[in-house]
Amino acid sequence: MGRGAADFSRFNPDRIATATVELGTDTRDATDVVIGLVTVKGCDSVVGATPELEKHWATAGTLTETVVAAGATSKPGSVTVLGNGSKRLAVVGLGNDLDLSNEDLRRGAGHAIRRITHTKLPSMRRIVISLDTDHGKQVAAVAQGAVLAIDQFTKISNDDEQIPRDTIVVIGPSSAQQELENAMVVAEAIRVVRDWVNTPPNLLGPSELVGQAKDYLGLSKGINVEVLDEKALAKGGYGGILAVGGGSVRPPRLLRADYHPKQATKHLVLVGKGVTYDSGGYNLKTESSLLTMKQDMAGAATVVAALRVIATLGLPLHVTIYAPIVESMISGAAYRPGDVITTYDGTTVENSNSDCEGRIILADALARAAEDSPELIVDVATLTGACIVALGERTAGLMVSSDPVADDILDAAELAGEDYWQLPVTEEVRSQLSSPFADLKSKNTRSGGTIYAAAFLQHFTKDHNWAHLDIAGPAWNTGSAHDYVPANATGTAVRTLVCLAALMTQSTSESAEKTADC
Predict the structure, then answer these.
(1) What CATH number does residue 249 fall under?
(2) Domain carrying residue 250
(3) pLDDT digit string, tens, across residues 214-260
(4) CA 73: distance to chain centroid?
(5) Which of 9, 37, 236, 422 is 20 to 30 A (C-alpha) from 203?
(6) What pTM value is reported for the model?
(7) Can you say whether residue 403 is alpha, beta or left, with left for phi > 0 and alpha for psi between -120 and 50 degrees?
């Protein structure tokens, strides 16, 4: 049976294209072997060579001399393949330093796997990656890069196409088994985010996304899920969510999920923007933008996935997520520019632009989150095109309530191997929030659009510690696939949130060591 609309009615892990991952000790029985090449002070050196590989592949002196003669270089991302048929050796460039970071290894494995698997084969591969990984975190990084690179969205088709499930073997110490397994938990969550974000909007509206999120979270013990429908939202006073979702025949939802282990002493709240399709409303988007607006629910998908990882790893941290989920459309019931909206906490907002819908629904969710009085609130959103203009497509914007919060987020991002850049939330911008018709206006001028949006959101956090991650750029790759990042949905920010959760537990336990990235 092909993969049609019915396949999307419930969360189905089998539709996430993946591979089997193992920990190994040798390269026997491999169809493909991956090793690395570095150049240190002008001298080339292979990374991950074994006596077996030297014996089989060295034809021009040493294995290093052989692969260099074949054209291999240490340039990061370069991949040279020796051999053909059933036995191949892939040499990936790893740069000019033997002291490789986890992200170097993750990207190197991704580059190699992408090159090896770019053509479909009728049978399964057994790919062995040998990159001198001598401890668990390195093994985890290699495995994660490989799995994320091999992942792909299975197109919706009536063709009964079977995709072989490759086996990836990472050579490393037996003590790395647990960290390898934890890395796969994180990788699976990232693949789920990618799958949701790539899914066409007609197949994944608010109720469908909520249903799939409930099924997904239900795979982990200890997570309690609550869903507010349009009636409950009206009763609760969630005016922002109702206004943005009012133009669609598919009513809005608010997903709240809570994980509270007995040993937890700190509370983290994650809030994710969930616009399953964003037309821009009466401020209609351009033709080119409309095609990819299914990705505007990446923030919601990210916080759901992060919670599942945190619970599965058993981190002793109280974590609550809020995901306001709407479809922003045009109709006679759609909210208009100039409307005044009353949000959850009673703040009135002049709708200056209906394409600023994300901050309107997040206002409700943040105000509700503030009632939980957590140690930290983090919101994640594909919020502003201005952030892409400022930072490009691979770096997310970070705006915070204080420098210590920024330090925590940036530390987590560095451990995760994801790129963020802190932007200020200035008093000048805060002074521009006031409206002559309401307490706040949702948008000001084009200048400083990312910072203005952050200042608007911070109003609803009620002086709690807070961070805003604007992932508008890195959540969707408009270019070609690179290293372990595919074209289209990327699954960014999941690793950073998991690392943040792990770091928040360090003062009370050693459980941060459980995570694959931290």
Answers:
(1) 3.40.630.10
(2) 186-514
(3) 999 998 999 999 999 999 999 999 999 999 999 999 999 999 999 99
(4) 31
(5) 236
(6) 0.95
(7) alpha
